[in-house]
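Protocol step 4 of 6: structure prediction from sequence.
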Amino acid sequence: MSIRYGSRSRPGTMVSTWLNSLVSGTVFVPSVYFAGGEAAAFVATVDKFACSDDSRTTLGTGLSSARQGLAGAANSGTAMYFAGGYESGYVATVDKFLFSDDSRTTLGTGLSAARNNLAGAANSGTAAYFAGGGPSAAGAVVDKFAFSDDSRTTLGTGLSAARNSLAGAANSGTAAYFAGGYESGYVATVDKFAFSDDGRTTLGTGLSSARNTLGGAANSGTAAYFAGGHDVSSQVATVDKFAFSDDGRTTLGTGLSAARQYLAGAADSGTAAYFAGGYEAGNVDTVDKFAFSDDSRTTLGTGLSSARRSLAGAGDSGTL
């Protein structure tokens, strides 16, 4: 008998994932992945955390090149995508990892422009969205990759302003949210893209403070979480939560285990958000986990395989 560890936020999804595992003869374990970044040098490393016990392995095949400032998004149950970043210059590269065996291919069509410090979010089963980034000429662009054939289109309506160092999260099936970043200064803006028509609105309530270099993750169907970053004066430990029911914002009583920026987020939807790496007084390997049941925080005993910042995250939660 197959066993599915973890839980989902949507009725019937656990049963669907369990049946898929039964047919394939495999045991599905939800996982979160953290890719690339800057340690002593740029890295191509991809670390994988099994959400059943939070154990870490490092993939034998990493990114196609060592880079930082990239973004991640996932077609949960199928594949994850890591886009853009900076090597010896800006890149448009999009690497795709299949969840079935963690193998990597690189898409023939990359981003519409080479850029870094962008953000990713996905409508699982349909498309990934990669928004913003630098250089400034590309900063309002939103590229969309259809999961059916990995083809790219660029939305006619981009971000409400050109910005970089923002974060993304999604309510799969409904909308993507892109929060914070840097324009001519730090911003608290949260742009929302409806998946039904890719139309953009900007939330009346933004982040609790204007900041950039934050991380994002979502409990699909319930809420998005935006954590850490740097505001006008310092690094912060703040975690803002946006309820998908009304886009209302609350700020968690317990923030990150330390104030830091340049971190990455990923989620086992229905169970927990993970915020990994970043910069405090130096690079860190810390992974903070927030349980969706009560928003409580724990810090994993095993962190990233190396202390690093400017990395990207994505998660496999099974079928959403």
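Step 5 (inspection) to follow. Residues 1-19 have pLDDT under 50 and may be disordered.
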